[in-house]
From TrEMBL:
Residue ranges annotated for the PLC-beta PH domain, each copy included: 17-82
Lineage: Eukaryota, Metazoa, Chordata, Cephalochordata, Leptocardii
Organism of derivation: Branchiostoma belcheri (Amphioxus)
Protein name as catalogued: 1-phosphatidylinositol 4,5-bisphosphate phosphodiesterase beta-1-like
InterPro entries listed in its UniProt record: PLC-beta_PH
Gene from which the chain derives: LOC109472306
Length: 89
């Protein structure tokens, strides 16, 4: 870039806004990679939008760093996983 000056192009990101419904918790179905059985959970997201927390029907809570999520589905695309097929097919 002919007129660009080094060091003046700082990227400014807006703070993440986590919807109230996710901070307070909402019902979702959690799928394991090796199972065709979904588990009903209450899912919550921390204030910064970085950690997912879910509690199953037995009251057990687990958490996950949001950066390791590789697949999410909603609506008509939220079907049973295809067991035995490579991902993406």
């Amino acid at each position: 870039m002919a007129g660009a000056k080094p060091g003046v192009h700082a990227l400014q990101l807006k703070p993440v806004e986590v919807p109230k419904e996710l901070k307070e918790g909402n019902k979702f179905i959690k799928w394991e990679d090796d199972s065709t059985v979904g588990v009903a959970v209450t899912l919550r997201v921390d204030e910064e939008g970085q950690i997912l927390y879910w509690t199953d029907q037995n009251g057990e809570t687990e958490c996950l760093d949001i950066t390791v999520i590789r697949d999410t589905r909603t609506g008509k695309y939220a079907r049973l996983p295809k067991v035995g097929q490579p991902h993406g097919k």
